[in-house]
Write a structure and sequence with these properties.
alpha/beta, 14 helices, 8 strands, 16% strand, globular
């Protein structure tokens, strides 16, 4: 069963009417309803608030990393374990092909259903997950294989065990090592990019966000709890924090916005996956046209330019 948000009520009605018309084999009615649906979708999705975009980024039906891996990759093989402690199911590493290009895909996986969510720790990696990601990235570097990183996490796991195994060090190590990784790297926020959990696989030659994704240092609920002692003010916090793809593009904190289908990746997975695949292949071609020195220099300048400001007299 599809899940509909409050502002998608009209869309739900149209979907139900279209299904009913198809059951009756009323093709004329289906065409009429689909045309009307396109107008409703355009009206709703072209006027979304920041909080509604946050809801879409967290939508239960939104594709996760494994969905995109299955839709995009062929001849894929999963890499397990960090060679130090254990395998963290919250981080996925797959070696395979996208459009004929050999690639290492690293991503965070939230999981669906109670059992799978618990297995994936709700997409909150432990330090061994980030160490597994780094091991896979280093393997890709050794064989000159490009790396695609897919970000989708509320944040790194803050539990006692994770802290005992040096969660902050694992994240910091990834920031350092990925900044120096000598192969083409592209990172994309596909849903929710939260804090250091997102940054740990977010250092790359190109950093992009999907249209309805968010990227922030803290969740809006956490921000509102700290600032106003009221988690219910999450909507106000979302607007103030500037966490949407359009906000971050305007601030020059990301390179590109990937145009997922207007109705959202949760309603059109195939075209959302195609948008990611096309972006990866296009940007990979551009990166390969650069020399190693040019690419590393461009990466350095992009990373060090973040947060820059000027003072006027």
């Amino acid at each position: 069963m599809a899940t509909y948000l409050d502002f998608e009520t009209k869309i739900k009605v149209f979907h139900e009417d279209i299904i009913s018309a198809r059951v009756r084999h009323d093709d004329a009615k289906v065409a009429e309803l689909e045309e009307s649906l396109d107008k409703v979708v355009a009206k709703i999705y072209n006027n979304l608030s920041d909080f509604q975009k946050l809801q879409l980024a967290r939508h239960l039906d939104r594709p996760y990393t494994l969905d995109y891996i299955n839709l995009l990759m062929s001849n894929k093989y999963e890499i397990h374990g960090d060679r130090h402690f254990r395998d963290d199911p919250a981080i996925l590493c797959y070696l395979g092909y996208i459009g004929g290009e050999k690639v290492m895909v690293i991503g965070e996986q939230k999981g669906r259903g109670t059992k799978n969510k618990i297995k994936r720790n709700f997409g909150m990696p432990h330090p061994e997950g980030y160490r597994k990601a780094l091991r896979a990235a280093k393997m890709a570097e050794k064989f000159k294989i490009p790396v695609l990183m897919l970000i989708d996490t509320p944040g790194a796991y803050p539990g006692i065990g994770a802290e005992e195994r040096n969660q902050s060090e694992a994240i910091a190590r990834n920031l350092l090592e990925l900044a120096e990784l000598n192969t083409q790297t592209i990172s994309i926020v596909i849903g929710e990019g939260g804090s250091g959990g997102a940054l740990a696989i977010g250092v790359a030659d190109k950093f992009a966000m999907m249209r309805y994704s968010v990227f922030s240092v803290i969740s809006p609920e956490g921000c509102s709890a700290i600032l106003w002692n009221d988690p219910k003010k999450a909507e106000d916090a979302t607007k103030a924090m500037k966490i949407t793809s359009s906000d971050l593009k305007e601030l020059d904190l990301i390179d590109d916005i990937i145009d997922e289908p207007l109705i959202g990746a949760h309603r059109d997975r195939d075209n959302a996956a195609k948008a990611i695949g096309d972006y990866f292949l296009d940007e990979l071609a551009k990166l390969r046209a650069m020399s190693e020195e040019e690419r590393m220099e461009a990466r350095y300048k992009r990373l060090t330019s973040m947060g820059a400001f000027s003072e006027e007299d």
